[in-house]
């Protein structure tokens, strides 16, 4: 079966790792911030989504590219302890991070079962209705 689509920009793990190392080294030497787009450009990609596409392929190149992407996230994470870190928060949210807490204290992730009460007679229904109303009034 013939390969379809455009040829891959990166085919060598060694070349990819050299480009990754060079990007982070250049950022350090030039005192430039580490960015996801900068990382993608250093790998020779014209779109930042290409980084995720290479990681999703789950082949030999996925590991080094994923590790580099984690280094970018680590950089953003390190900025959280500094004042004015809104840009880092925004960037991390784009990686799927959340800054809200979700608590499920009643169902532990399970759907809530609906309680159905069937009353055998009108008198029983009225008695139940009166008991519920009295309980509410007592609170």
List the helices and strands and how they pair.
Elements: H1 13-29, H2 36-42, H3 49-56, H4 62-79, H5 86-94, H6 122-138
Helix pairs in contact: 3-4, 4-5
Structure notes:
This protein is mostly helical. It has a domain at 13-94. It is built from 6 helices and no strands. The radius of gyration is 28 Å and the shape is elongated. The protein starts with 12 loop residues before the first helix and ends with a helix. The mean pLDDT is 80.
Structural class: mainly alpha
Shape: elongated
| Mean pLDDT level | 80
Strand count: 0
Q: What are the segments in which pLDDT stays under 50 over at least 5 consecutive residues?
A: none
Distance between the termini: 74 Å
Tally of individual helices: 6
Helix content: 40-55%
Rg over CA atoms: 28 Å
Strand percent estimate: under 5%
Assembly of the depicted chains:
single chain
Largest sheet: none
* Element pattern in H and E: HHHHHH
Quick summary of this structure?
It contains 6 helices and no strands. With 139 residues, it is an all-alpha fold.
Structural descriptors:
139 residues, mainly alpha, 0% strand, elongated
